[in-house]
Amino acid sequence: MNHDSVVKVQKIKAAVLRKKGGPLKIESLEMEGPRDEEVLVRLVASGICHTDIAFCDGWEEADNAVVLGHEGAGVVERVGKKVKNLKRGDPVVLSYQSCGRCRQCRSGHPAHCQHFYEANFGFQRLDGSNALQRSGVRGHFFGQSSFATHSLASERNLVKVSKDLPLEVLAPLGCGLQTGAGTVINSLGISKGASLAVFGTGAVGLAAVMAARLVGSHPIMGVDMKPKRLQLALQLGATHTIDNRRQDVAARIGDITGSGVDYVVETTASPQMHQLAIDVLNPHGVVALLTGESGTDSLPEGRKTIGIIQGDAVPQHFIPKLIELYKAGYFPFDRLLKFYDFGDINKAIADSKRGDTIKPVLRISEV
Ligand SMILES: [Zn+2]
Ligand SMILES: [Zn+2]
């Protein structure tokens, strides 16, 4: 072991998942680090993403307790010796982790990192170590585990931001919003006048709607079961909405476009919606699957489905771009947010599951 000669340890508080479905309990833990290439971040806020909730509900109780959270924002507290571009006091947004060494990472495509799964869902560093081992808990979720007062991240998943915007507003840019907007702008490259249907108008879907308005997609159809979310979709750029509990989605899309649709962004993970997305597609149309499935191009007339990770975004480029768009009024994602105290994390999760809150953000500490 040739990393740090002296092991640094700090006491932190974190929301720990010990049993399937929760509740998460805020506990005092000991965290080792930062190592030479790591950055210790004191978290100011963290968004809650659907993936956190999916892990919570799917957790096997035989596994070790874990700390979730992957939309952190905070202030750099300490940096390891090999960290070059960040220093104590820098405000940062945390995003997904990548290895930095594989071919995809080296060619500027970290969302396709060959070690993406281990780096984000391994609950350990890529070398197999775990900074929370002393407390018998596993962290490093998305290279951050941000449901905590402190995170260990790296230059690869930290984005330095300016001091003029509240970190609690910026926190959710690191996953959900980047994914929705990046899918439209980077992955699909939707051009002016192309038609789009967004299945599921949660945070990811609404980010796709806002980005679609930006690039001039038309029509932009929001599909959801919650009238309140559909109303918001209209305000954020959807030209039409379809309530899939009350309306026949395929028939409505046919009425609106006169044919099918050029692109579908599928965020619901429902097998019926997945099939419906293919059924309503124009020839050469594309379904973007944002739910972890991989795509297929064996569909007739050039149609295809593609699995997209993190909107193919390089966080250090894309998040500052989204912040600029937000400041200019073109990406008003603050309208999706609802703030909760860290101690109310279980209520925030419950509100999100019911669909009452689109994007919960936990307030963890003062700036
Ligand atoms: Zn990699
Ligand atoms: Zn996420």
Sequence-ordered SSE layout with sheet pairings:
Blueprint: E1 9-17, E2 25-32, E3 38-47, H1 50-58, E4 65-67, E5 71-79, E6 91-94, H2 103-106, H3 116-121, E7 137-138, E8 150-154, E9 158-160, H4 167-170, H5 176-187, E10 196-199, H6 203-215, E11 220-224, H7 227-236, E12 240-243, H8 249-257, E13 261-266, H9 271-279, E14 281-289, E15 304-307, H10 315-327, E16 337-341, H11 345-354, E17 359-363
Parallel strand pairs: 4-7, 10-11, 10-13, 11-12, 13-14, 14-15, 16-17
Antiparallel strand pairs: 1-2, 1-4, 3-5, 3-8, 3-17, 5-6, 6-9
Main attributes?
six-stranded parallel sheet; seven-stranded mixed sheet; 367 residues; alpha/beta; binds zinc ion
In brief, what are we looking at here?
The protein has 367 residues and is an alpha/beta fold. It is built from 11 helices and 17 strands.
What does it look like?
27% of the residues lie in helices and 26% in strands. The mean pLDDT is 95. The strands form three sheets. Strands 3, 5, 6, 8, 9, 16 and 17 form a seven-stranded mixed β-sheet that branches. Strands 12-11-10-13-14-15 form a six-stranded parallel β-sheet, with helices on both faces. Strands 2-1-4-7 form a four-stranded mixed β-sheet, with no helix packed on it. α6 links the parallel β10 and β11. The longest helix has 13 residues. The two termini are 36 Å apart. The protein has eleven helices and 17 strands. It is α/β, with parallel strands linked by helices and 367 residues long. One zinc ion binds next to loops. One zinc ion (ZN) binds next to loops.
